[in-house]
Amino acid sequence: MKLLASGLSKSCPKADQGAYAFTGLRALNDRVDLTFGARWNAIKGNIEFKGPLAATVGETKQWVDPIVGLKIHQRLGGRWHLGLVADIGGFGAASKFAWQVFPTLAVDVGKRARLGFGCRALGMDYKTGSDSTLFRYDVIANGPVLGMSFNF
């Protein structure tokens, strides 16, 4: 996206988001695991002004949310598998509330490899600072996922 500023300079806003989960599992039965851990969130935004008054303004925010959830895995028969990861978190420790829903459909492509397709939705309501330093990130990010897993 490009914005025009006073007809002479252009600004190009850029944003990057990363969410990295570190979890442990506790099997509840042969198809359901309890998950617990933390999700590290990192948001970086930049606006670059070009022209006679060139400048770049940017900021990075990072926070860690505790999370708890379920991981469900079901063999559909043959080479096919259905999976679901769902969790909630934040609990006011960082985000007021955070959640994730991540269903997948996978197919065995070898004795120890699996190709998966899915859609991930991740929501969070995070706020820090006040007045002129207020940063609020109340967003739902979602999209398709393609991945490969290996069993050892």
Q: What is the residue-averaged pLDDT?
A: 89
What percentage of residues falls in helices of 4 or more residues?
under 10%
Low-pLDDT runs of 5+ residues are 1-10
**Tally of distinct domains:** 1
Shape: globular
| Biggest β-sheet: strands ordered side by side in the sheet | 1-2-3-4-5-6-7-8
| Element order: H for helix, E for strand | EEEEEEEE
Would you kindly provide a brief summary of this structure?
By secondary structure, the protein is mainly β. The protein has strands at 3-5, 9-27, 32-49, 55-77, 80-89, 97-108, 113-128, 135-150.
What does this structure look like?
The chain has one domain (3-150). It has an eight-stranded antiparallel β-sheet with strand order 1-2-3-4-5-6-7-8, with no helix packed on it. It contains no helices and eight strands. A hairpin with a 5-residue loop joins strand 3 and strand 4 (55-77). 12% of the residues are buried. Helix content is 0%, strand content 77%. The model is unreliable at 1-10 (pLDDT under 50). By secondary structure, it is mainly β.
Write the topology of this structure:
Elements: E1 3-5, E2 9-27, E3 32-49, E4 55-77, E5 80-89, E6 97-108, E7 113-128, E8 135-150
Antiparallel strand pairs: 1-2, 2-3, 3-4, 4-5, 5-6, 6-7, 7-8
Which key features would you list for this structure?
0% helix; 152 residues
